Description:
homodimer; alpha/beta; D-Maltodextrin-Binding Protein, domain 2; five-stranded mixed beta sheet; 13 helices
Amino acid sequence: MKKTNLEVSSGSKYKRRDFLKKSAIGAAGGVAALSIASPAIHAQTKVRWRLASSFPKSLDTIFGAADVFADAVNQASNGNFKISIFAGGELMKPFDVLDGVQDETVECAHTAAYYYIGKDETFALDCTIPFGLNARQRNAWMYDGNGMKLLREFYSNYKMLNFPMGNTGVQMGGWFKRAVRTEKDFKGLKMRIAGFAGRIMQGLGVVPQNLPGGEIYQALEKGTIDATEWVGPYDDKKLGFNKVAGYYLYPAWWEGGPQLSLLVGKKAWNALPSSYKAMVNSAAVHAHTDMMAKYDSRNPRALKELIATGTKLLPMPKQVMINAFEISQGLYADLSKKNSNWRKIHADWEKFRKDQVDWWKVAEKNYQDFMSYQL
Amino acid sequence: MKKTNLEVSSGSKYKRRDFLKKSAIGAAGGVAALSIASPAIHAQTKVRWRLASSFPKSLDTIFGAADVFADAVNQASNGNFKISIFAGGELMKPFDVLDGVQDETVECAHTAAYYYIGKDETFALDCTIPFGLNARQRNAWMYDGNGMKLLREFYSNYKMLNFPMGNTGVQMGGWFKRAVRTEKDFKGLKMRIAGFAGRIMQGLGVVPQNLPGGEIYQALEKGTIDATEWVGPYDDKKLGFNKVAGYYLYPAWWEGGPQLSLLVGKKAWNALPSSYKAMVNSAAVHAHTDMMAKYDSRNPRALKELIATGTKLLPMPKQVMINAFEISQGLYADLSKKNSNWRKIHADWEKFRKDQVDWWKVAEKNYQDFMSYQL
Lengths: 375, 375
């Protein structure tokens, strides 16, 4: 069987057949639970790490992934490998955590890699780009495709390595103070939206605004901006955007499955015993899967509550999506000319995306379509 | 933050604030990687488990999940907790592994719980039932909804506990020797299909057949059966069904996201140190997510290869799906009258399904629809 990127390659694989021969008689016919008390053959090393998160505690699903991760490592190591979590701003500014890992202020960080496109646009490929992979497709690329391998090569330039740790699923297309039903309604709209999505929105005639999360509500209320994007029902409801904007668009074509990352400094990683590397590896997948499950489980009720208090759902106009797709293709082609890191990884990603979409058209989409029709 | 079922509740949560106070001075400003050599405070217990799989080694993605799980535990425990894997038939018959865990012949098993509906139909709710949750929705129910809690109550009757460990995603609707385009084409068809799906197919006029995997190819070739269902492109191609049946239907409305289970005997579980419980918990999620990633990554190419060698794709006729859905509702209502275990868990599951489908109609479906349209 081909090994996936999820399988830690360090550490020798347990030889099943050898054990089989040695233990067949003793173990046959009953539970061979604990062997008789054997002398200590391995003492666990004490390790202390600090994790800088880009997120505030109020985003409990996203911020909480770091807690889930640290708890899993703490418990598996019997309290010997402890990771303390610092919310965005506690140790350093939310978007400084990549630097914090690189300059070894902290051993690791939990962040969204697309915050760092100012350093290199390639970082976005470790999170999402407009019209990107959905959450499962992204796992497929990272764990069994070339994603993890290519991105680890890229991150090694920053003396760190990456682990997927969380995903929100397809996000909502944002809150609008007025109904937007055609591409014309987007012209001149002041919308809080950043990164690649902001650049593409600009091509659609939108005036993108860059505002920290804490300032959005007031800007919407005062009418300084006409619209904002955030995450999805569960998170958006907490910020109360429904009280100052009536229309909630879907989907966010710019966030079809944004993945969060655990970034670990090479020096800290290399100093870990191999058993702790294995714990980090499994605990990161554990926290990754747990976050997606939380969003999927909690978004439905939050959306119902929003609708019950008057929020109007509107589909993103198809022509807007078609135009945005075309602009995105131009943007990516342009980046491939200028940035060799991007070119290499994006080429692999783009081929993978096409294959995934072709396959999802068959079983997954038709199943989901029927369930939507029937229920 | 509400705790999810993924978070191991045993073991005390690390007190971040306390550590912060104690270590703030020493750790500030640099990587506090390994502390200075400290005396051994914890020696790891040696544990040997045997895992009986229901699957043959040839199904490398499904069978392999047990290897991924055992490797992760082995490495995290520094080789002190070793789990030997036995393929279906090696220690016991593939469908006897639940009994094997219950009577303590083995400590754990990897299986599909719907194999055991002869004991209690409720087992199917730990895998899938026709028109069930997709893979992500199922994770949401298990990890953040009531799924795990309810199923663990159920499994405690069998002296074991369950962990999700693998999913195939939406399966394909099977191989047919003749084109089937309307509900009439299904009447009298001899199809290899079992369980609830077989019962529902019977309601559609199909004559369901029960055949072990190894006998299907020959039965199709000889014309003893007209059709069979199996898994999806990656697995089906290995068995060569495309050589003896020309039409490949999609989707399998009876397997919208079947989940495999790791079943662990209570006695073996209770004997584990809490650190090993945490390792099992994270390693099971690790193997769970890894299997889905493998299927998603490998199915697209396999499907292309099948099509290139002449396989014809056909959609499952919509009226067949509508009729099957109606029969399934009757079947489930009937079970709810007869089986109190089923009634309790199915009621929770059914409400969760409706909420999930309502939510997926919004962002996820519209995003996927656009990607299918555009690429």
